[in-house]
Write a structure and sequence with these properties.
8 helices, 365 residues, 17 strands, alpha+beta, single chain
């Protein structure tokens, strides 16, 4: 395909309108929410006879069959999986479906959106050739174009005076036929487990809070770890309530970009997860307020323990790299979940979150 960049004023305006619509679509098809605010703190004795609620950890066995000519990208596991309900990961439609199911129930032949929403007419536009800045001889059906902001579209129709572009994602309208069984569900971590308390609070699932610089790549690293059932990115260790991404990036709020991980300690230990993070830092663990090329207090690396058992493990792990390791180790304080589009960002942009995936993580999409 011929690739051209369109930079006329017309396309600058069109790009703004199109991107706004596209952003709304992505946010509406990814039901992501704060892990620590979606907690079932009062499970009842009849829980196994009811449906899971946000914050529960659901275990399901499911299979997906593409409908039509849609070829799926293997970005997440199928078969038997466990995940925090409404905590992101997997298909948004899968979360919606199992929220209405009871333990042992099977749903067959269910159509699930592939995650990109329906094909939208408002992302298709007719463009006058004369004002586009493109030579008509270069235009062919299927030609790939880029709007002024870098958003990709494709030519789908050409006549004497105009051509039509389609900025829908390539997989818009794609669906799966699914068979889903809700095997079981359990309460996720209780609210106190997200706070700091000297004594460890028992629960089937536990919480790790860690900062590794830009939170996109670190989150995907943890999504790939067997035993991890939920992740979120956000901001912690700062002075301002409910900071925005822009405020944190300014370096004035005191927050650092962080990752919160919910895991099953019978499968993966806190110590193992801490090591995953410290190894990911590489030589950056010896740099103050810097990870890779990202500099500033908002990119400082740290481990934020939720009890004194975690504290001892974190301090020992940091010490194992010698006195030059400057990873901070502090009590966990409130974690503010980042804006929706930052959550599971790299998965949503096409990178594999399969357990034990080995593909290189590209931190910027």
């Amino acid at each position: 395909a011929i690739v051209m960049r369109l930079s006329s004023a017309f396309f600058t305006s069109l790009a703004f309108i199109t991107v706004k619509a596209f952003t709304i679509q992505i946010q509406s098809t990814n039901r992501l929410s704060t892990l620590s605010s979606n907690i079932n703190t009062n499970p009842t004795p009849t829980q196994l006879m009811s449906s899971p609620t946000p914050g529960d950890v659901a275990t399901v066995t499911y299979s997906l069959t593409p409908n039509g000519d849609f070829v799926p990208n293997p970005l997440f596991d199928d078969g038997k999986v466990s995940f925090v309900l409404d905590g992101g990961n997997y298909l948004p439609g899968l979360h919606t479906l199992i929220a209405k199911m009871t333990t042992g129930e099977t749903q067959s032949g269910v159509t699930l959106d592939a995650g990109w929403g329906d094909k939208r007419d408002d992302l298709i536009a007719k463009v006058p050739i004369a004002s586009s800045g493109v030579d008509k001889s270069d235009l062919k059906i299927g030609t790939e174009l880029f709007l002024a902001n870098g958003m990709q579209c494709k030519v789908i129709e050409i006549d004497d005076e105009d051509f039509t572009i389609d900025a829908n994602p390539p997989l818009a309208g794609a669906t799966y036929s699914a068979e889903v069984t809700l095997d079981s569900f359990q309460p996720g971590p209780s609210q106190p487990q997200f706070e700091y308390h000297p004594e460890k609070i028992d629960g089937q699932y536990d919480v790790l809070t860690i900062a590794l610089g830009c939170f996109w790549g670190g989150e995907l690293e943890y999504q790939r770890v067997t035993g991890v059932v939920g992740t979120a990115v956000g901001y912690t260790q700062g002075q301002k309530d409910d900071p925005t991404y822009e405020e944190v990036c300014s370096g004035t709020t005191g927050h650092t970009e962080a990752i919160q991980v919910i895991f099953d300690p019978s499968i993966v230990s806190y110590e193992e997860l801490v090591k995953v993070g410290l190894e990911r830092l590489g030589e950056s663990k010896f740099l103050m307020n810097q990870v890779g090329n990202d500099r500033g207090t908002q990119y400082r690396h740290g481990i934020y323990y939720h009890n004194d058992e975690q504290k001892d493990i974190a301090k020992s792990s940091i010490a194992s790299y010698g006195e030059k390791c400057v990873t901070e180790c502090m009590e966990a304080v409130r974690f503010y979940t980042a804006e929706n589009h930052h959550l599971q960002y790299l998965l949503k942009n096409g990178q594999s979150a399969r357990k034990d995936a080995k593909e290189t993580i590209r931190c910027y999409g």
